[in-house]
Give the backbone structure.
Amino acid sequence: MNPSAGQGARRRVVVIGAGQAGLSAAYFLVRAGLRPGIDVGVLDANPTPGGAWSHRWDALTFDHVNGLHDLPGSSLGDAAPDEPAREVVKRYYGRFERDKGLDVQRPWRVRSVESAEGEMDGEHTTGFRVVAEGPEGDSREYLAGAIISGTGTWDQPYVPWYRGAFDGKQLTTRDFTEPDDFLGRRVLVVGGGISAVQFVQLLDENGVDTLWSTRTEPRWRECPFDTEAGLGVENRVAARTRAGLRPRSVVAETGLPTTPSVLDAIDRGVLVSRGPLGALTADGVDFADGTHEAVDAILWATGFRASLSHLAPLGVRERSGGVLMADDDVSVLKAPGLFLVGYGRSASTLGATRAGRRAARAAVRYTSLERDAKDRKSLSSLS
């Protein structure tokens, strides 16, 4: 097989996903002296740069984004507030990839990562076998000494189960395109996070009859979300992942910001939750309080789960659904050499950048130790 073509190619580290966390990791690997496309392989499932941002809807303009932290050694610069956030981030990430020479391979979706041991180029090798699928159904295989997985959550929208069945249109956050799709319809937005709040406001502003349902009372945050508050959130999330528990939703940790537009929508009765759902019906929903509402569509803005199905062969998930993480918050205890970024406390863009640096350093250190052990074994066989 020809390693340069990616078939059975050996890489010291394979980075999976080219969002904020993956790009950060790749950048720090290259800074450590690893060569892009030779020592480091970066695989991304999206056809363009931008990670999950590349799928956002047109109406999500940059002025409605909670914040985008700069990638390492780079600056976003000025961005028009009324430009779709998708285009801003695609352009920025693409420029970063080119300027840093990261050689991102796309669109290649990693289907599986498993432990590997065998012969390659006449040497006995241990590590991970990575199988990726291209757009035409073709495949690539890599043998990697370490894996940095930064696949985020976009591919795993979460929809809670309710008894009954609804005959109308149902969609999740990742399926949303533009509010005009719902003109003349009555829409129920379900979810207590920032995306749900944005959808309710956006639909209302565009003349769509909208209802809002949350499982609990909306968690409005009156105090500013400063550095101290952010650190507290990170520490709480880290405590869960270090215990192998699934990370909680973002809003459960941060609360919802009360911006002037949000306060206005609350005052006008737009951002007022009807409470939790009880059941789905053919023409709408029954609420837990016994009332019924007929709707034409349900938008499930109920969050996401970590996209980790490609790691299933490694058996890293706990019974709780989480992954047991080490104290550095990037190392997976059950699979030495596997590092998660953009998971748990590093789910924010700031946390993702920091995690990328930690994971890169850990991967370089791990693969160096593996090489040293192999060299010692080779020397002992000659003595």
Summary: The two ends are 34 Å apart (CA to CA).
